[in-house]
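Hypothesis: this fold can be encoded by more than one sequence.
Test: take the structure tokens below, design a sequence, compare later.
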């Protein structure tokens, strides 16, 4: 009985491995547009795909980022400046992509640009704090997709959306987790709508990786700012001890995974495999902790978080 089961499981993984290693043809003729290429995952993915011979259209937020990337890549990689919060900027980038891709259409769209701050207990924040993050991480993803989807349809290509484990189990206040839940929901509806069009939609769910998004210095500063402007009542409820413990937890981000290729390999697979996955979890913390935790009954996952997280000084 056990042998029979083990054989079945082994066969399943063997078949899956064989299916997943098949690659689409003519990669050198395929155009991929990536947002947020100044640093982090977007920057590494742009360089990685360029090395593999794909035609990379890299969108950077700053001219400095674009110039540095061009300096590290082949002449085939092209850059454009894009702020995903600005409709004019998205429209101009779309026109630029159309000019480059012509009749071929766009094979890949990678919605990678994102910010994480401010993040703090919800009571410390204003509506504007939430809007700031949602504007980039969620509305930016939606608007860029709406503009570029006709070109992706033409190529029967791929949309790759970068979410996070925090889009499965949200650990902090602020707009970040909300935006990543939103990316999941948007990707789910898009995948179902496009299932007959030949376009495939993949979601990337990284754990914690060392990039500017998880830079403890930047998070410290933002956390301090939101604390400074919190009302005296809120400060009394949370207390200095809560603030200090939170700072300690933020400091532990210093130790998070440095190997960004764990994420960009998933993105590359989603773009180049004949049979891409719907979801890719990247990093051991994602695979062993956050994703399993997201399947636990809420009472259990809440208990785990309650046990780890700092506690406010007062309960009322
Ligand atoms: N690092 C992690 O642990 C982690 C985990 C899960 C998910 N993610 C997600 O992964 C994606 C990439 O983040 P990363 O970790 O690689 O950090 P990153 O290096 O800061 O990458 C984010 C990129 O987005 C750009 N950007 C910021 N605002 C923008 C805007 N309004 N328009 C266009 N581009 C903008 C940034 O440009 P500048 O550099 O010029 O600011 C940067 O190049 C994000 O969606 C993030 O939420 C990260």
């Amino acid at each position: 009985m056990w042998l029979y089961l083990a054989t079945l499981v082994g066969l399943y993984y063997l078949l899956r491995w064989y299916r997943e290693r098949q690659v689409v043809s003519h990669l050198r003729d395929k155009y991929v547009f990536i947002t947020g290429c100044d640093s982090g995952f977007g920057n590494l993915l742009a360089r990685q795909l360029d090395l593999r011979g794909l035609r990379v259209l890299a969108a950077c937020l700053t001219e400095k980022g674009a110039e540095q990337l061009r300096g590290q890549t082949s002449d085939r990689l092209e850059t454009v400046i894009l702020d995903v919060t600005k409709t004019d900027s998205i429209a101009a980038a779309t026109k630029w992509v159309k000019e480059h891709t012509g009749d071929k259409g766009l094979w890949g769209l990678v919605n990678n640009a994102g910010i994480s701050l401010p993040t703090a207990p919800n009571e410390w924040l204003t509506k504007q704090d939430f809007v700031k993050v949602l504007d980039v991480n969620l509305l930016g993803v939606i608007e860029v997709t709406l503009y570029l989807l006709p070109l992706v349809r033409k190529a029967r290509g791929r949309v790759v959306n970068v979410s996070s484990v925090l889009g499965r189990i949200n650990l902090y206040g602020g707009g970040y987790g909300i935006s990543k839940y939103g990316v999941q929901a948007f990707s789910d509806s898009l995948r179902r709508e496009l299932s007959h069009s030949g376009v495939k939609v993949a979601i990337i769910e990284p754990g914690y990786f060392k990039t500017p998004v998880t830079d403890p210095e930047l998070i410290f500063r933002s956390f301090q700012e939101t604390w400074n402007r919190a009302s005296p009542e809120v400060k009394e409820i949370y207390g200095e001890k809560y603030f200090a413990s939170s700072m300690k937890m933020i400091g532990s981000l210093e130790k998070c995974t440095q190997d960004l290729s764990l994420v960009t390999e998933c993105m590359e697979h989603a773009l180049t495999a004949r049979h891409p996955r719907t979801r890719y979890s990247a990093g051991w913390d994602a695979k062993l902790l956050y994703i399993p935790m997201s399947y636990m009954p809420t009472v259990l996952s809440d208990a785990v978080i309650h046990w780890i997280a700092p506690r406010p000084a007062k309960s009322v």
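The chain is about 55% helix and 10% strand. The pocket of NAP is lined by residues 35-36, 38-42, 61-62, 65, 82-85, 112-115, 136, 162, 164, 206, 208-209, 211-214 (CB under 6 Å).
Hypothesis status: open.
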